[in-house]
Amino acid sequence: MHFSTRTLAAAIVTALSLPVTAADIDIYGKANLTVQSSDEGEGSFTEVKSNASRIGLKGTHELSDGLFVVYKAEFQVDLDGDSAKGDSITDRNQYVGLKGNFGEILIGHNDTLTKQIQGKVDLFSDLNGDIKSLWKGENRMSDSITYKSAKFGDFQFGLTYVAEDSVDGEDATSIAVMYGDQALKKSKLYAAISVDSEMNGYDITRAVVSGKLGGFTLGAIAQTQENIDSGQEMDGFMVSAKYPINNWTLKGQVQTASFDGGDDKTGVTVGADYALAKSTKVFGFYTTFDMDTGADEDYLGVGLEYKF
């Protein structure tokens, strides 16, 4: 489904006009633009890219003591102007649900549990070095129901179910168990494991771990995936690290993908962020992909990100 700018503006104005007592409403967004030199195997070129820039509405409404409605309507906005006519605003996570002492259940268009559990381990998410460049599993699915249990100590269980949506369709599931806090603010260690079945054409198992050691934040992801139609399997591994120095954050990660038949792929990304304020940063990165089959790729960019 595509939305015009006028439709989105009307939705925001409507939300802002709701009585304050009706619900807690947040208008939020992120603008992320890079100027970069890109080489995808046929020579380098310069481009301006909008990297998953977005705007959205989210909030809660207390129905009774301990029971809340939760909702979100988020849209991707292509600030570089490169999208086809009518595609400059597209859907991201959009759902409504209930939250209480039983946990949380959400219905709509949402990230699967396998996508969610990677948390902040992928340090170059939405840029060319994003883990989705080599792996499957970064799915945002329509017709989905997502349940997350209440926490049992530091443990939590989650399930995404995707309905068939047609007589000839196939349903799918994404199941995960999580330990700790993704942001590492409430726990020193975060770990999770998930299993996808029939999800967007793949069966996937993903394991994630992250923690702090000295001043470093370290993370790792291991993944196996199988194409349901072809039976081709892949084993992959990714490690990442970041280190803050005053307003700077130095970052790097390495990702591998080994496919049946000896087709090996490797991605390496290094970069640095400089915080101008809590809401704003400038950054630079270099990404290189080494492919056994297919063209090697290289990306060098600088960018500006503003969150509100």
Automatic annotation (TrEMBL):
UniProt keyword Translocase, yes or no: no
Location(s), subcellular: Cell outer membrane
Pfam family, one: Porin_4
Signal peptide limits: 1-22
Domain Porin: 9-292
Keywords: Cell outer membrane, Ion transport, Membrane, Porin, Signal, Transmembrane, Transmembrane beta strand, Transport
Protein name: Porin
Gene3D superfamilies per UniProt: Porin
Subunit structure of this chain's protein: Homotrimer.
InterPro entries listed in its UniProt record: Gram-neg_bact_OMP, Gram_neg_porin_domain, Porin_dom_sf, Porin_Gram-ve
Topological type in the membrane: Multi-pass membrane protein
Cellular compartments per GO CC: cell outer membrane; pore complex
Naturally occurring in which organism (per UniProt): Thalassotalea marina
A GO molecular-function descriptor: porin activity
One GO term (biological process): monoatomic ion transmembrane transport
